[in-house]
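Model the whole thing, not chain by chain.
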Amino acid sequence: MCNTCGCNITPGNREFAYKPVNGKTAVSVLENLLARNDDQAEHNRQHFDKHRLLTVNLMSSPGAGKTALLEATIDALRDKYRIGVIEGDLETENDAVRIRARGVPAYQITTGSACHLDAHMVHDALHKFPLEGLDILFIENVGNLVCPASFDLGQHKNVTLLSVTEGDDKPAKYPVMFRAADIVLLTKSDLLPVLDDFDPERAELSLRNLGSRAPVIRLSARKSLNLGDWLDWLIGELVQKRGKLASDVLVQPVAEPQSISSNTGMQG
Amino acid sequence: MHEFSVCQALIAQVEQIAISHGALKVQSVKLRIGPLSGMELPLLEHAYPFASAGTLAEGSILEIERAPLKVKCEACGLDSKVKPNLLTCRMCGSCKTRVVSGEELMLMSVELITT
């Protein structure tokens, strides 16, 4: 039974559920328009949790440096963490090829003309992309500061990139996107000295004006500037996530030892 | 840009409700949408006839109620009405605010023709 499709209405309570008036029936629904996507996203999240993964959704305008950030992150963490990447683009396999060249599994979703990834596309990708043994899964969303913000994919954290070659008022122009960010990265920071019209403090103020308390980090993936703060944040989130999953397992009743050992990934 | 996909999801939801109630047709659909939902209302209204064509909702009326944008300040505790890109407290200026209304993207009710 649910409150979605009307199956909660039985012959016994039908007359209380709604009353036909002149052949018309008003049905009160009160449900999010993206309920189906949100249900699927929740399913994806459970799947990620089962694999003890941290799943991070990367969003930005096209060309802000999402793939370059991933390349630098993979290079920095490859010895300690196993990373997987799901790439979203309208066309081409180019980004997945760049990631695979770094020795990391990547799956490319081509959306055709769709301007965002949704939870169903990610779910389909998960059927073809094994998560076993991964620590961090990145989902690189379609480059777009509008639509991706509206669709939950099942990720644990949202990372929004703002490159310093863009305007520092982007958060004010795209409030829905920047409000969704758990962390904002000001990328291509090596170019700041030659870009006198981008003021990182103005960018941060514009973010604070949205009531956001997300940390802001300036970095350059290409020049390896200040990557440490970003990596610390990422690993901190992974540790926190695993700690939470472990404590969730501890509070579960010990009725099914089998399911607990599979949840924690422990053998036997 | 994504209004058409949202509209398709809406129509699927509405059709499911209509079928489960044995309705012949959908008369009207009522939504409540806030300025921070990421939805452009004119685009959604435009997409509606296309997304509903050939379904039980074809020809139905789409009514959209606009939810006001309000934040509650965690510093001074007051509610204020704000703009989408300036969500700081109108009273004390603090950025420690929480949106209490304005993110809605809700299907409120559906009116069905049942006989």
